[in-house]
Specification:
Blueprint lengths: L2 H12 L4 H14 L5 H33 L1
């Protein structure tokens, strides 16, 4: 268990919550923790770069069209 989950468990038991219920609550927090791995971050970085490139190309094309229509 992570430190935060252990601290939550200890705080709940100190507050008078039944140990089994405190354990279940701490496990529920553990199940909902979403952490990104280095692979997840690398994939996200690649996706952001692709979207930025596409947006830049679209904006450049739109600008060129406007210049052609005006000029």
């Amino acid at each position: 268990m992570s430190t935060m989950v252990v601290e939550l468990y200890e705080a709940l038991t100190k507050a008078g919550v039944d140990e089994e219920l405190a354990k279940q609550a701490a496990k529920a927090v553990l199940d909902t923790e979403i952490l990104a791995t280095k692979k997840d971050l690398a994939e996200m970085k690649t996706e952001i770069i692709m979207w930025n490139t596409g947006t830049l190309l679209a904006a450049t094309g739109l600008f060129a069209l406007i210049v052609k229509l005006i000029g």
